[in-house]
Each structure stands twice: as structure tokens, then as C-alpha cells.
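User: Please fill in residues for this 233-position structure.
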């Protein structure tokens, strides 16, 4: 389905991004994975049998993003799945500098990558951001995360009308199982969401399906696909 398409996944060395990369390769795309850490990218490329191009980029740094796109050149679809250190303390106790640093990577990182990436995206191409369920439900200790995820969704909708025909969408994941699993995480999530209909964490591959849909569906723009096991019911 994506033969002769080039897909760039920033944050593709682990987690949800890595699952997007696996599915994009399976669908026949040429894939570039990017993040800050050479070792992580190398390990991911090895695991994928060397079938990907790897590039270093720090989404929190303008110059790094500019140089990254010069190296990558023209491409079709951009997915951004970066996750910085996310401040999860109570609102009145959170360190503002730490919150701003997280915003700089997750929100402004997506902003920078979209803004600078537009000129490299081919006709019928797309940008897919990642938000998170805290954009639409409140949880104790998640104020910073809620704000950056909601800002991400708002940005995608706003620029979808300016960048058309390039499409801009967002995937909003619910709580996902990490690799390797973090001990106690499932219990923590169940305590936060006692009425979660599907009663389990999501798998990264279940979230990744939404990115592949958005790359391929030529009538979706300004959309948010929520993949959350029903936590917002
Ligand atoms: N996991 C969940 O339960 C969950 C729930 C809701 C939403 N989400 C959202 O889904 C996205 C992916 O989450 P995940 O759990 O799959 O994350 P993850 O496994 O931690 O992967 C995130 C990737 O982002 C890269 N990264 C971090 N800061 C970066 C920067 N400044 N520039 C470039 N790359 C950077 C990291 O690589 P380097 O360290 O090499 O840079 C890492 O490979 C995030 O936006 C997260 O907020 C996740």
C-alpha cells in the first residue's frame, strides 16, 4: 500500500513510534527513524534487519531540526511520537522550568517539525501528531501533560486549514503498555480508570494502526483518532 512512499517517524526508535515503523515497513514504505540517541536508533535498526534509515534529531532544537530535514530530503508522511520526561507532580508543586522543558520537546517539538517539514512533504502527503488521553480527561498529577496534549490537538486542527492539501491529523492514545513493561503500571492505570471498558492497557501495535490509517486516508484532515480502550466513555 505504501510502495514508493517515504515515511519519517520522529521518536520511531521505541514504543508507539517503533510499532508505526514496523507497520510502515510491512506495508512496503521506505522508512526514516529519528530521535536524539544514536544507540537507540542503532539498536532499533538492527532489530528491523537494517531496513531503515536512521537520523539524529533533537525536536527541542531549531537548528537540529533544520539540519535533519536537509539530510532527509523530500518525503511523503511524517509521524511524530516523541515523549520527553513528563512532569507528573501536583500542579502547585510542579517545577515550572521542568514543565516548560517538556513542553519545548513535546508541543514545540511537534510545532517545529511540522513547520520546517512542510517544504519537504510531497503532494498528497501528511503530518500526524501524537497527543494523549489526558487532553480530554483530567487525572491528578497530569496538568502539564493535559495542557501539552490539548495544545497539540488544537495546533493540528488549526494548521490543517492552512496547509491543505497536506493533511494534518492527531492520534490520541490511551494508556499503553510499554516495552519492557513497567512493574505496577497496569495497576496504576486501573486505579486511575476504574471503569475502563476494555479493562486492560493498549498495545503499541493497536495505537500504530491509527497512524497507518491516517497516512493512507486521503480525506482525513484535522481529525483526532482516539485509541483508548474506551477510557473516555
Ligand atoms: N505510552 C503511553 O501510555 C502513552 C499514552 C498517551 C500518550 N502517549 C504519547 O505517545 C507518544 C509516544 O509515547 P511512547 O510511550 O511510545 O514513548 P517512548 O517509547 O518513550 O518513545 C518516545 C521517543 O521519543 C524520542 N524523543 C524524546 N525526546 C525527543 C526529542 N527532544 N527529540 C527527538 N526525539 C525525542 C525518544 O528517543 P531518544 O531518547 O533517542 O530521543 C523515544 O524513542 C508520546 O507523545 C506520548 O506522550 C503515550
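Assistant: Residues filled in for all 233 positions:
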Amino acid at each position: 500500500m505504501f510502495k514508493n512512499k517515504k515515511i519519517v517517524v520522529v521518536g520511531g526508535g521505541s514504543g508507539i513510534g517503533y510499532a508505526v515503523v514496523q507497520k510502515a515497513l510491512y506495508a512496503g514504505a521506505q522508512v526514516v527513524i529519528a530521535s536524539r540517541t544514536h544507540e537507540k536508533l542503532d539498536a532499533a535498526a538492527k532489530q528491523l534487519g537494517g531496513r531503515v534509515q536512521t537520523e539524529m534529531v533533537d525536536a527541542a532544537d531549531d537548528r537540529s531540526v533544520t539540519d535533519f530535514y536537509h539530510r532527509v530530503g523530500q518525503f511523503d508522511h511524517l509521524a511524530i511520537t516523541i515523549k520527553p520526561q513528563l512532569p507528573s507532580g501536583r500542579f502547585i508543586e510542579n517545577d515550572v522550568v521542568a514543565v516548560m522543558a517538556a513542553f519545548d520537546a513535546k508541543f514545540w517539538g511537534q510545532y517545529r517539525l511540522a513547520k520546517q517539514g512542510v517544504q519537504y512533504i510531497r503532494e498528497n502527503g501528511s503530518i500526524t501528531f501524537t497527543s494523549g488521553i489526558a487532553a480530554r480527561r483530567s487525572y491528578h498529577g497530569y496538568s502539564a501533560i493535559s495542557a501539552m496534549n490539548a495544545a497539540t490537538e488544537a495546533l493540528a486542527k488549526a494548521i490543517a486549514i492552512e496547509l491543505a492539501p497536506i493533511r494534518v491529523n492527531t492520534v490520541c492514545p490511551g494508556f499503553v503498555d510499554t516495552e519492557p513493561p513497567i512493574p505496577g503500571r497496569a495497576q496504576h492505570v486501573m486505579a486511575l480508570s476504574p471503569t475502563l471498558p476494555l479493562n486492560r492497557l493498549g498495545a503499541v501495535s493497536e495505537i500504530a494502526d491509527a497512524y497507518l490509517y491516517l497516512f493512507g486516508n486521503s480525506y482525513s484532515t484535522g481529525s483526532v483518532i482516539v485509541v483508548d480502550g474506551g477510557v473516555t466513555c
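For context: The mean pLDDT is 96.
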